[in-house]
Design brief:
Shape: globular
Number of strands: 11
CATH topology of the largest domain: Rossmann fold
Order of helices and strands: EHEHEHEHEHEHHEHEHHHEEEHHHHHH
Distance between the termini: 52 Å
Strand content: 15-25%
Number of domains: 3
Number of helices: 17
Helix content: 40-55%
CATH architecture of the largest domain: 3-Layer(aba) Sandwich
CATH class of the largest domain: Alpha Beta
Mean pLDDT: 95
């Protein structure tokens, strides 16, 4: 059996990954788990999957865990994520953390030629050029885990990249794609967190409501597939059955269809290049009946436009987008700013930023510090 480490095991993707592994026994052994500090979720995972090592964000949580599992190897902090991931006994590492806490671990896994399964948007966007460079140098296997990028990854199998006309990312549109812009000024936190299709954490749910999540996915696709931002389109597809498409120069389209369940792309990534029999409900098109598509309104959802702008400018601007959005979403969730304040402040910080080269990991963290310091001036 192959040893796997799951970074972010207590989050939505991490929990669903463990469910997929449990439904498909005999292929992977869970060597390591990493979480922030959610011991109430992590402890049952340890008891069930019996990992050899665990990493936690803070020392205090690690000490509590050590009392319960004295023989378990426990790491802490960002260095802990690296140590648990680069073990020679580990062949695959799944990245499901939020933010760039796992960036160093991702780079080190690539250097150590691990098979990396990635659902972490922020690291790909903030350090896209760095990750591209190391993937080419060390020839590590990189498999995207988001449903949209998994769909594109599968649609591009056996195709010539020179014959791609456009990549088309689909999205549900979130809870407000039919809402008039003037009404968005007064939407509540509860309304924002009521996603019509997907059950996700609060940060990504807010990003889905602003369409920033789709903007992030444009930048991810840009770096993962090395396609210009101008050739990556977005369509609102409320049924969430087509997870993305590739348009070719001859006028043909390839699309991947399935019911909206993240366990499907997770299972594909884990067992690639093989496909295992599904344990989920199959897609029945006669039940779906209708598939509809709409262009997004970038005036109503300016975050999408700002993300495209960041991708065209490149250098440090994608990192600025990631870090500023993280702060603003947190402020919205705490009730300190309104829904439409998110794109307003993002546009302001774009104007204030002086572009910087991003050639090493340290450059990314410098941009993060600049954003945090600059954002203090707004509040």
């Amino acid at each position: 059996m192959e040893n796997i480490v799951i970074l972010g095991s207590t989050g939505s993707i991490g929990r669903q990954t463990l469910e997929v592994l449990e439904k498909n026994p005999g292929y992977f052994r869970v060597y390591g788990l990493a979480a922030k500090n959610e011991l109430e979720i992590l402890i049952p995972q340890i008891k069930k999957f019996k990992p050899k090592a665990v990493s936690l964000a803070e020392v205090e949580a690690a000490q509590k865990l050590k009392k319960l599992f004295p023989k378990l190897k426990i790491y802490t902090g960002q260095k802990g994520l690296v140590e648990i991931s680069v073990s020679p006994k580990v062949s695959s590492v799944l990245f499901a953390t939020s933010g760039i806490v796992c960036l160093e671990a991702l780079v080190e896994c690539i250097k150590n030629k691990k098979r990396v399964l990635v659902a972490n948007k922020e690291s790909i966007i903030a350090a896209g050029k760095i990750i591209q460079k190391y993937l080419k140098k060390y020839k590590a296997e990189f498999i995207p885990l988001d449903s949209e990028h998994s769909a594109i990854f599968q649609c591009l199998k056996g195709e010539n990249k020179k014959e791609i006309k456009n990549l088309i990312l689909t999205c549900s549109g979130g809870p407000f794609w039919k809402t008039k812009k003037e009404k968005l000024k007064k939407v509540t936190k509860k309304e924002v967190l009521s996603h019509p299709v997907w059950k996700m954490g609060p940060k990504i749910t807010v990003d889905s409501a602003t369409l920033m999540n789709k903007g992030f996915e444009i930048l991810e696709a840009h770096y993962i597939f090395e396609i210009p931002v101008e050739k990556i389109k977005v369509l609102i597809h409320p049924q969430c059955i087509i997870h993305s498409m590739v348009e070719f120069v001859d006028g043909s389209l390839k699309a991947l269809l399935s019911l909206p369940d993240m366990k499907i792309p997770i299972q594909y990534a884990l067992f690639h290049p093989h496909r295992l029999p599904g344990f989920l409900k199959p897609l029945n098109l006669s039940e779906i009946k209708n598939l509809s598509f709409f262009d997004p309104d970038e005036k109503k959802f300016p975050c999408l436009k700002l993300a495209k702008l960041a991708g065209k400018i490149e250098e440090s601007m994608p990192a600025v987008l990631v870090f500023a959005d993280e702060i603003l979403v947190e402020k919205f969730l705490r009730g300190e700013i309104g829904f439409l304040d998110i794109p307003k402040f993002l546009a302001q910080i774009f104007k204030m930023h002086t572009l910087q080269k991003i050639s090493k990991i340290e450059d990314v963290f410098k941009v993060k510090k600049w954003v945090e310091k600059t954002m203090e001036k707004f509040f």
